[in-house]
User: Fold these one by one.
Assistant:
Number 1:
Amino acid sequence: MAKKKKSLKLKKSTYLFIVLDTLAFTCFFLAYGPFSYFRNLFVNTALKTMNHKYFAYVLYSEKTVEHIKNSNYFVRINDSTNTDDIKIDTKEKKSYKNEYEKALLTRDKNNNDYKVLNIKVGSGNGHLVAIYDPSKVHLIAKQQLGTQYGERVITMCQREKGLVCINGGGFVDKGYGSGIPNGYVVKNGKIIWSDGYNSKAELIGFTYDNKLLLTTDSAENAIKNKNLRDALEFGPFLIVNGKPLEIVGDPWGRAPRVAIAQRKDGVVMFLVVDGENYMFGASLKDMVETLQKYGAYNAANLDGGTSATLVINNKVANNPAGGSKKTNGRYVITGWGLLPN
């Protein structure tokens, strides 16, 4: 009997070592094997973090890290949108250029405000919202900026009586978020938050004639000379004047993502893609290609990851990463909403 128990223990320990050996081999294979995806993913993810960039150099030499950086990048678009190209005419059309335009612009019964398309973007579930009146798209923000915590998108949306809302810009991240935005926040032509004057800020906003303005400029100048109404600071710009972002390789991997866009006819699009950070979801290239299919002429990337939140009719309509749907999403600072005029 004693021998049998000893044999059983031996078998259990043997199985454990087999599992550990298998995991070790798998990790080694992914890190150093012939497939570059996981290597790129690990290094690019580490380099994007605030405090853990050194992880990239734990497994790889400086030369390898530099090679990965040089093989995966995008070239930022520094042009500003030419708002004269946008001719606002959002009434329902009699004919359509393609199936994507038809799906987007054909109104749902008894809803002339917006339409939601559930689509696949990369490896994530995408939610594309068409907003037919761009004059109703406004910045939403935490009630008091600069205080300890942020607010959930659903809270900001309810306060503004919004029909559809998404998160927007970045912020000082302390787990639950904080009340401190990164960069400019502009509402109704006034700067309500700033890190200080910045002539090279990537501004994502709307003009007083309801056109999406993407410009690398200071908010002070954009308010004075570019008719800026509302704005926040983030990026990169994905499409400017019909020109897509130049992307080489896969610089940011796949993740939950959020974007805002406008067609030449003025229709605004919110695109929110679900996923888990850096593994599943959409790449930047996926976002650009999807928005182009639906006719985006200008588009910009907003804060993604666990911040990615879509609220429709007072409910979180997407599946935020990290299991935060149970708590109605994480705390953020700013966003965009379809609000009553």
Number 2:
Amino acid sequence: MSHHLDTPLASQNGQLYLDDLYVFPGDGSTVLVMDVNSDVTGARAEPGFHPEARYEFKVHVDGADFEDQTYRVSFGEADADGRQAFRLHFLGGDEAREDLATGALVLEGRTGETASAAGTRVWAGRIADSFYIDLSLLDIVNGAVAKGAAVDLSAWHPEEAKNSFAGTTVESIVLEVSHEQPRLRPGTRVGVWCATKLATDAGGWRQINRAGHPMMWPIFWPADTDFSNPANARHPSQDWDTDGRHLAGEVAAVVAASGTADDPHAYGQAVARELYPDVLSYVVGTPATYGFAGRNGRTRADNAPEVMLSLVAGTAVPSGLKPSVAKDMRASGFPYVVPV
């Protein structure tokens, strides 16, 4: 479940913890971006990507419960300049769900440089983080969810909001797949999530973290500072049966206390069904937006925190921040990020 690294343990292990997932159209292409290893808590303990880990983009087609496309990125040890070699493998069909499957090598490259082959481009490296939120607003909603209480915005002044992530950085993996590729043709309805996995001593792989919708972890599990919640290790197909009713109940309690829904139970169920399974829905080739009117992928400019906090509260929760607050952290062309 996605989150930024706002705990001591996360600060020590940031290479494996996902911060954000983005899915949006490029120039005749689909762009997938995962961010990890935020330095929001201060100097990161270990720069770069974990050389014994896998970073995977998972793609479900037409509402399927399981992925039939996996784009797997792996990294080597950092050299004297801090650069790392990387490889991108593609796994399709049943192999997309198999950790022991090798897949097909698509391309190789180095961090800080663009690598391309067969209608696919990858860039990976340290970037300015374009995520924006005032964490004091998150604290208000956190408290309401934890207590099953109304969201009290009486002390919140949107006009005074400050971006808590100003000046912070993350490691980013940017994958661009051309519309010419048969796997991601325009009009295809997909669900996308990403995961980090670490090699085990027994020769297998353990899923460490995953991300789909933004803000899931800081809203619903802010007290789980060691990230031991099993939601991180499970597959999205297990989300509803495992945790759906609990999440629905938390939302229902908030809107019941706030008086923002005539039928809190029904509202809680609707929100849980919207968020579970925890994957980003996107129609290939269409404009992306994560907003109030709808959610179709997610761009780096979207005010996703405001949308998620309002969804949980059952009423508008103004963040006080606009996309322009982080405009210098976004680029219009590949790799769509601003390296640092």
